[in-house]
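In this supplementary section we document a worked example of the pipeline. Step one takes a protein sequence of length 313 as its only input; no multiple sequence alignment statistics are reported here. Step two produces a three-dimensional model, which step three serialises into structure tokens for compact storage. The input and output of this example are shown verbatim.
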Amino acid sequence: MKITREIKTAILVLGGVALFIYGYSFLKGNAMFNNTKTLYAIYDEVEGLVSGAKVSINGLSIGKISNIDFLTNTTKILVTMEVREELDFSNQSKATLYETGVIGGKAITIVPVFDPRNVVKEGDTLKANVKPGLTELINRQIEPLQIKIESMLSSADSLFAGVSNVLDNDTQTNLKRTLENLSITTNNLNKASLAAVKILDANQESLNLTFYNIKNTSDNLKSITDSLSNTHLGHTIRSFNNTVEGLNRIVSKIESGEGTASKFINDKDLYENLTKASNELESLISDLKNHPKRYVHFSLFGKKEKPYTRNEN
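The serialised model returned by step three reads:
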């Protein structure tokens, strides 16, 4: 039988369609000739999970997500998984929803529990579990910090409100004046410092000469002190101390009544006698001056001497 051109074209088209379907299923991870079994898991929220996402155990892919839909008459999410038929973990295993990366979406990993009496079979529902992702962990860490920041902002607002109430118009005006005066004072200090710098620059040579003279003076003082330290100053001081001690002994003897000087100073009768003798000597000298002839008489003719008469004055 002769195959017509139409039959060849139909066979070619059907083969292309079959090849396309196989390639599309292969790219999506659907195994057309491998046997699989369907498992289920129920979650409250599956944001980021899409059909075709992989199902794995310890990182090894064992299937994929075939369907995601609402559980009948509820808002819970029923996730349908197609996994390899030969797997024999228990139906008490957990299907954990986790984040594959910051932008990598989500997938499901099965935490297997092996129990020969309860091997998972077609249509079983596994226990659902959700592992916090990086974004959720960051949000958990940021949330207390956010609360503290909001509290600080509220306190800052209260503080600024209190400050605004305290700083009335007069106070604000005084504060502005104070700041202006402070600015003027700062400018004056800057000008004074510049003037001082100019004065120092203008008198640099004089200052250097002054410092040089001070250095010479200090050197001379050092030389004088060295000379004094080299002299017999200690011997001189000891000699002076000995002299003072001798004078102290003499004064002590005088005070105790020993020696002629002590008697001369302390004897009252001697003092009175000396006073009387001094007075009589003074009278004698005065009379001698007034009447010298009474005491010196010289005559060539032997004139009789007049008797002595006391002068009442």
